[in-house]
Design brief:
The chain has about 350 residues and is of the alpha/beta class. It has eleven helices and 14 strands. The strands form four sheets. It has an eight-stranded parallel β-barrel, surrounded by four helices. A two-stranded antiparallel ribbon has the order 1-2. Strand 1 and strand 2 form a beta hairpin. Helix 1 packs parallel to helix 2 and helix 3 runs parallel beside helix 6. The two termini are about 15 Å apart.
Length: about 350
């Protein structure tokens, strides 16, 4: 089933392989994408769908050096290089809209504090050019400030449309701002955004679908993950409520990151997967991500747990991943030392197993 067509909202995918969003910290001046980024994505255009890397919707949404934005004319022009290159190669590409929230540092924000639903200091350091540093206690957003952040997402969505993307994905995973509002670890508010922890997410969804329509918007969650000091005391209930609220809105897809639902880091092989747990609550297309190979991908598609499978690290070192999956060619190993920052090395110089760029 991996190589059958899939209707994903307004898009028809030629296969069910998704390139997951991958932060690589290779944006150019002004956090704008460059021709190097365009080449990287075009090399991987045989994917059924590319979800481009997390891109901050405002200067205050930045969480790392070298991450691209989608809030300035220069960034829109840079992303147009990428979308034109991917479309010329026959691909489809979405932009993941992102706000790091409290997972940032004043040195990245012009001296301003990171923002968060509540003034809860993260327990994990942030990667900075001079080394890892502990982020400060963030600024807890006031009721007057929250609509401005929602508007940043709307403007980011409009800029993604202007840049030629085929749609957007909201980054609601991995401990960043949308997740921070959803989870009781970061959201201690007692007002309308604490009593209803879904409210911010739903306002953002309404804002971006006003630009794109629901059938070109997806959202990504990591319900049982703990990346970037994220997490919730009762993820099954919290994310069950979120998915139930989103289900009738007609979004293009829900994108879920495993691990399994065991709640421990070593994983229980008999525990249901995240996708299996929430599949009954979601009636639209579902993408699952998290350490898949061909056999595991075929299995979750065959039993209906998911409709498409996202590959992340495998796409770093295998621009021709579709060919390798189709023909059983072993994956090229990746070089972790080149994941973040730098130039072409470890980014656009991984070889393809086959000469033909299209299959």
């Amino acid at each position: 089933m991996l190589f059958t067509e899939l209707r994903l909202g307004a898009l028809t995918l030629p296969n069910r392989v998704v390139m997951a969003p991958l932060t690589r910290q290779r944006a150019g001046a002004g956090d704008a994408p460059t021709a190097l980024n365009a080449l990287h994505y075009a090399q991987r255009a045989t994917a059924g769908l590319i979800v481009a890397e997390a891109s901050q919707v405002s200067p205050r949404g930045k969480g790392y050096v070298g991450t691209p934005g989608c809030h300035s004319p220069e960034q829109v022009a840079g992303w147009r290089l990428v979308t034109d290159a991917v479309h010329a190669a026959g691909g489809r590409i979405l932009l993941q809209l992102w706000h790091a929230g409290r997972r940032s540092h004043p040195s990245l924000l012009g001296g301003r504090l990171p923002i968060c639903p509540s003034a809860v200091q993260p327990s994990l350091p942030v990667r900075l050019p001079g080394g890892a540093e502990q982020p400060p206690v963030p600024h807890d957003l006031t009721l007057k400030e929250i609509p401005g952040v929602v508007e940043d997402f709307r403007i980011g969505a409009a800029n993604a449309l202007a840049a030629g993307f085929d749609g957007i994905e909201l980054h609601g995973a991995n401990g960043y701002l949308i997740e921070q509002f959803l989870t009781d670890k970061a959201n201690h508010r007692t007002d309308a955004y604490g009593g209803d922890r879904l409210r911010f997410m739903l306002e953002v969804v309404a804002a971006v679908t006003s630009i794109w329509g629901a059938d070109r918007v997806g959202i990504r969650f990591s319900p049982f993950g703990h990346a970037n000091d994220g997490g919730d005391s009762d993820p099954a209930t919290t994310y069950g409520a979120a998915i139930r609220a989103l289900d009738p809105l007609g979004l293009a897809f829900l994108h879920l990151i495993e691990p399994r639902v065991s709640g421990n880091t070593d994983g229980d092989p008999d525990a249901p997967s995240v996708a299996a747990l929430f599949r009954p609550l979601w009636h639209g297309p579902l993408i699952v991500a998290g350490g898949f190979d061909r056999a595991k991908a075929d299995a979750v598609l065959a039993d209906g747990t998911a409709d498409a499978v996202a590959f992340g690290r495998a796409y770093i070192s295998n621009p021709d991943l579709i060919a390798r999956l189709r023909f059983g060619i072993p994956f090229s190993p990746y070089d972790r030392s080149t994941f973040y920052g730098g130039g072409a090395e470890g980014y656009t110089d991984y070889p393809s197993a086959l000469r033909s760029p299209r299959l």
